[in-house]
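Protocol step 4 of 5: obtain the predicted structure for the target chain.
Materials: sequence only (see below). No template structures provided, no constraints applied. The aim of this step is simply to have a reference model before the mutagenesis design in step 5. Sequence pasted as it appears in the construct record:
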Amino acid sequence: MSSTDLPPLLRLPLHTIAHILSNVKTIQELGPIILSHSIFRDALQENFHSVVSAIIMRRVPDGALPYLLALVGSQRLSLSNPAAVKQLLGLAASPCPVALSTLGLSKAEYAYMNSSCSSAKAIYRQMALELKPLCNAPKKRHYVNPWERFRISRAVFRYQLMCNLFCHRLCLIRRQAFGPRFDDEELKRLFFSSFSPWVNEELMCVFVFLRRKVAQDTPDVDFISQIHWMLCMGLPFLSKIVSGGTLRSTGIPQFSTGRSATRAYNPHTILLCSKLVPEQLTLNPPLQDPGLPLKFWDKSQILQLDPQRAPHNSPFRAWMGAHFRCPISRTVCCDADSNLWFFGYVIWTSRRWEDPPWDEFYESSDEYRRREPIFPRPGKEWGRDDCLRSRKQRKDIHDAGGEGYWPREGGDWSEIRGLTAPQKEALEAKWLREAATESTGESSTTE
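Step 4 output (structure tokens):
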């Protein structure tokens, strides 16, 4: 058969077909296409990196690629080596010098990037849906502009990078490998010091949003440590929770088996390190008084707070206005700003902040600070006795070989698997004995 007798599709060169493939929205859409005809499979095999990287690049907000590459790097490098961690953190703070298609990433790494982009998209959409109306945003309050997509995606990628680096046992491995002289705090300071205070506050806003969604959508979580453990479960898990999933639907076990994040390595504790970075800066000219409010700083000193020398846009103005009368020690990760974090105050773009009167801006921010908390604190509805009882029951079920969903009220075995009827009866009898013993002890104490 001559080439003129071939169908039009088969007359096209493979690189042209590859270009067509690179215009699909997500990597998942490639599957049905390459199964429909061998010509698509051949084009993808011959131009794999160019096709997949083009799809990824359209999904990554402008400027967010270095943070995504650093996140991918945290999956492949030997993170027990402090030098490797420092190199990785330097990558996150620098623009990507080459095209993505030339980096030789594996299929698994491309899939991880695609999944991370999908998770970031789900998170920034839900943040806009919930938080923009609280900020008195204009008519298109649910619309996320390119700058807002970039800020939230950057914070999401940095958050997961922080969890990968610091929120698990690799911290202990580094200390064991390099001895007691090794200080992991240096790496944490490096993680935050490469960015301005307002960029680190973006990270805090995203963390507070994720923590609230996990606490709200998983009401049977009884201890804050368990919430922090789930906050380290990865972006796909968190995006499902943010999009309306529950702990039950995600299939994550509910038993306390020692996997909760320890106090030293939970996300909130790591974020507290960002508080120390502005205080340790060496300014020129130096501050006469460390407690000097920002309103008395020179413009040159303010500029030195941003290592990347980025333009002073809405996040800077929001941060500056909210802390205009505050010393630098109260401008990052300060508990008094919890209501501002709930709003995502350094994320949204607003024309109201283009040339604000700083004192008026501060008064408005301070009024928000003094309000009652907009959202309840995670775990507040749980009493201590309820927490201990629920945790004990879940541990007993797990130790007996059971798995599944156990509600905080107890008594519902319908979603517990792996236990026989006699085992369930034995556990219930044990809990009744323990409850009776506790009641007897309380009565004797009262007398």
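Step 4 remarks: Residues 253-261 have pLDDT under 50 and may be disordered. The chain has 22 helices and two strands.
Proceed to step 5.
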